[in-house]
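Entry 14. Two folds queued back to back today. First construct below, sequence then structure tokens.
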Amino acid sequence: MRVLAAMSGGVDSAVAAALAVEAGHEVVGVHMALSRTRDQFRTGSRGCCSIEDAGDARRAADVIGIPYYVWDLSERFEETVVADFLAEYEAGRTPNPCVRCNEHIKFEALLDRATALGFDAVATGHYARVVERDGRRELHRSPNTEKDQSYVLAVMGPERLERAIFPLGGYASKAEVRAEAERRGLSVSAKPDSYDICFVADGDTRGFLRDRLGSRPGEIVDTEGAVLGAHDGAYAFTVGQRKGLRIDRPADDGRPRYVLDVQPAQNRVVVGPAELLTVDTITGSDAVWFAGADTSGTWFDAEVQVRAHGAPVAARVRAAAPDDDVAASGVEVHLPDERLRGVAPGQSVVVYEGTRVVGQATVSGASRSGSASRTAVAAR
């Protein structure tokens, strides 16, 4: 096959490209330039996509012996991933930019351009497995549980999975990948992992939001509406947050308070005790289902995960039927045995059966049985 290898400049994508060559594919390496001022995108191990990273990717391609190009996708990245990030926070939601990057950049813009150029597939350094079963391709968790990225890949859906290759799917640890890179003479073998949000290289998400959205002073209130403090913008808060609340007086019982709700229309942040964060019902919109998923609207047993590295919990799940209260493209989740804490609108809820990804949706609401919905935000 003709394979386009996405090369970020890190060790994972470099080894993935080398393994694709070893598997007999005709491979071309591409580094995606995602920022118009690329030198700002790395501070130590934070961020990615800097000039340094492009150089590291080029050197890796030279060692592997494959052609290498840099594609400028900065405008598309700004218009989709960064714009979505700002709009979601402004709407009182908590987005996952890695999910949106996989959706709009790696497995839309990059894959579509690769297909137009005659490539059969795109290879990336993600930690996930593709399993062939009954004539269909399934997305599964990686055996490397610490690095598993099936959660952020679930948004790609079955059609794009058909044209994706994850050569690191069989590796059980990052140490194995680094050893593979060292054995192949790749200089990135000891390069630190990038983390946090790539376009917030200094890690100050609140500062980034303030610079882009401006100061919007408002109130912090308790569940009874009593004013406890002030903020510079409700967009800077997320459900479940404890630190940085700047509340003027402690709770009567002395216990810490957490963000329970962000109300952008009123520019207000509601705080309260930890027990009010627990939910056992989740609704989601914009669902993506993989081949073999039960989308008939009947309930089925599964596990769900609401954070990239969160623990999966047992659940009863159904795809929304057209006459349901949730959107026709949505999902409804009930947690019979264990409640989740701090589920925020805008997060991804991913449905698993064992290691297999069944589907994904964007959280639109969460509540506890016998109580009013704690969060109910319009779908994206």
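Second construct, same run, same settings:
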Amino acid sequence: MSSPPREAFGARFALEPGYLNTASIGVPPLDAVAAVHAALDRWQGGVDRPSSFEPAIAATRKAFGDLVGVPSSSVACGTTVSQLIGTVASSLPRGARVLVAREDFTSVTLPFVAQGHRVDVVPLDQLVSAVDGHDLVAVSVVQSADGRMVDLDALRATGAPVLLDVSQALGWYPVSLAWADFVVGVAYKWLMAPRGAAWLAVRPDRLDSVVPVAANWFSDPSQTSYGADLVLAPAASRLDLSPTWFAHAGAAVTMPWLATLDLAAVRDHCAGLADAVLTGLGLPPAGSAIVSLDVPAIPGVRSSIRAGRVRLAFHLYNTSEDVDLVLKALT
């Protein structure tokens, strides 16, 4: 790389100016890359055992709990959001009524459709007013396509059972979600870890209602590895999948670090940069780290096209230099 590493919130990042695609793939800090390289070196040398990764898995489980405001005993480890939501969807009564936002990501909505539940679809701004009569409300805290945010306080006040996807929020947006029935999130976006790890927080009073549809050796606390005796852990780890080791090797660096940060300051930094782009274009600020613009692809900027619009995502490693690149290209 030609540019010196960027420093942000005590970490160093080897990325060029103009990377505004965290909503698709987050960029890891250098020490997380080093941890994954070390794990690959151990693999190459044949010195690891499955148990070698248990400290990293325990660290990511605890850090996810810390970030969403629940104990680690309430957190299950999986691989993708759709897999974990599929576990919840398969545990609902047949024909359950599920409310989703029309604009939400399909990993949130389709698991319920695939299970044959009655899925009612409404615009995001009508979600809270439409909760009555539903067995579950499933929604992303921050919308993938355009960065709009659900009103968590209003949703909580309804008392409706909820599943919240924090994949586009956790890492830049501070949350406290112990009240939610289910909270799911993925590693490789704002948590800046390798793809292949995801987590599901289950409120303790809902745990017995969730069927471990992918029960396996790792989710069995006896870890006998053989036979047909189903032994369930008392904690949410009964829902674990066998983990993707190298994803946790990286996540065990980034997630505990993020959990120590002042996430309100991180939010102000990220949303402040995004709002600087909006105000620079004569648009009202939105208070989100994700910006959706009806413009052509922006030269010199790494971004995504979502719902026919350019999506920009500002994380803690972005700076005003990235804002200037966007505004110079568009104005």
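Quick look at the second one. The longest helix spans residues 263-280. The chain has a mean pLDDT of 96.
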